[in-house]
Design goal:
Length: 467
């Protein structure tokens, strides 16, 4: 019998601990905020504390005196890209870009994204991967390729853009070496050049049309979409696979007589596509910093922009081919049991082993958070994964995805529905081509990270046959 691993030494080590759930649950049961002397940070772990921290107007994504991490300043191209990313900035200047991204993603039909992902999945792995490295490559190449298509990259550009995006992600990590940052700087320049000359898909066109947004800011945030895809969606695909292939799958619901399975979250309710966003979601992807919802009207003509985005995407021959392929129908097993098991596995992954485990906020001024004084400049480490372990957590903190992994408040990820759609398509395809789920856990490890839980697979797959 294998002994249980010791608990994590601190909240950042928990991100890649074999099973940090008990540790997270203990933190979530503590008072609103606790001080971690090792990391010199306040810890927000309970669902209430996480929600309060992510909505507080005085907590920012970067320290006011340090908008760019010092190690990146040694690489001017990397630092310039980082400074333009809306996910790493606060204030009114980010609003046009944020709105453009939210509206463009909101205009994308989940069924269209699903068809595109299914088409690309079939091209990437027409047969079940037998080696862990090939499976790992697929978990990254599929979502990056789909977002690349939506940004306007062609097949030739995607062959290089996928590894370049992974180099950039590694460079932006706090664990990166100077050599990795140098490689990431070159990759960032290459990605921006490709996007500049590609003509622009619907997502990039939306960024370019945003009022007051320069070409440099539009390109930087297009690259940022690839980075976020690499971090979150690839991790969700991997964690979904582990949920299907380990003991977690035994807890997934059994089939009803009609072949349909119950799904545990409203966002997973349809068996062939994710539900469309609520009517006001494009206007309300983020909340104001004071915690009140932002119901400001979208700019005049946004409906025409949305329609134009959908029309442009549907004219892409790759998407047309994907929709035709999807219309031919999937095997009954995929439409029934496999579909619902995938939905349940993704819900399990988002709640129990989310790909994004924590995020950081810095006090821009002296403030009080749930009765705890926080001094200007202090770090608040927000444990998204711990909030899921809080019995008092709301059943559905977001309407579009289960759990807290995609954030709340002013920096809530607007691409959560797209990420879930791509992950679902990836898992369905792997089941359809007969991926052997047995032994996946023994073939998996986690990439080094302080905030992500991203599996990588190695060795020969299928040591234990489950299907």
């Amino acid at each position: 019998m294998t002994a249980a691993p010791p608990p994590p030494a601190d909240p950042l080590e928990a991100a890649t601990h074999p099973d940090p759930r008990a540790y997270y649950a203990a933190l979530a049961a503590q008072p609103a905020l606790t001080w971690d002397p090792r990391r010199e940070a306040w810890i927000a772990a309970g669902a209430g504390a996480v929600c309060a921290a992510l909505h507080h107007p005085g907590l920012r994504v970067r320290p006011p005196h340090e908008p760019v991490p010092p190690p990146l300043l040694e690489h001017p191209g990397l630092a310039a890209l980082y400074a333009r990313l809306i996910r790493m900035t606060d204030g009114p200047a980010r609003e046009p870009v944020r709105r453009a991204v939210a509206e463009a993603l909101g205009a994308l039909e989940p069924a269209t994204a699903h068809a595109l992902a299914r088409h690309r999945a079939a091209a990437l792995v027409p047969a079940a991967p037998r080696e862990g490295a090939a499976l790992t490559a697929f978990t990254f190449a599929l979502p990056l390729g789909c977002v690349g298509v939506l940004l306007g990259l062609g097949e030739a550009e995607l062959e290089d853009a996928v590894p370049e995006a992974q180099l950039l992600v590694a460079a932006l990590s706090p664990l990166a070496t100077s050599g990795e940052r140098a490689s990431g700087e070159r990759a960032a320049h290459a990605l921006e050049t490709r996007l500049r000359t590609a003509g622009g898909g619907p997502l990039l066109q939306a960024l370019r049309r945003a009022p007051g947004v320069s070409e440099e800011v539009a390109l930087a945030n297009a690259v940022g979409l690839l980075v976020q895809t690499c971090e979150a969606t690839a991790g969700l695909i991997g964690q979904g696979l582990l949920a299907l292939g380990t003991d977690a799958s035994a807890a997934l619901p059994e089939a009803h007589p009609d072949g349909a399975l119950p799904v545990p979250h409203p966002a997973m309710a349809k068996r062939t596509e994710l539900p469309p966003a609520p009517p006001d979601r494009r206007r309300n992807t983020e909340a104001r910093g004071d915690g009140a919802q932002d119901h400001a009207p979208v700019q005049a003509g946004s409906a025409r922009v949305d329609a134009a985005l959908t029309h442009a995407l549907l004219q892409d021959p790759r998407v047309q081919n994907a929709r035709r392929s999807a219309a031919e129908g999937l095997p009954r097993s995929v439409l029934g049991v496999d579909q619902a098991r995938v939905d349940a596995a993704l819900t399990h992954a988002l709640l129990e082993t989310p790909p994004v485990q924590n995020t950081r906020r810095y006090a821009a001024e002296d403030l009080t958070l749930l009765g705890t004084p926080v001094r200007a400049g202090q770090l608040v480490l927000v444990l998204l994964a711990a909030a899921n372990q809080d019995p008092a957590a709301p059943a559905h903190p977001r309407p579009d995805v289960p759990g807290h992994a995609f954030g709340l408040g002013a920096h809530a990820c607007p691409g959560a529905t797209l990420a879930l759609t791509l992950a679902r398509a990836a898992l369905l395809h792997l089941l359809e081509v007969g991926l052997e789920l047995g032994g996946l856990a023994s073939a998996a490890s986690l990439r080094p990270s302080l905030n992500g839980r991203i599996p990588r697979f190695t060795g020969r797959l299928g040591a234990e046959v489950q299907r």
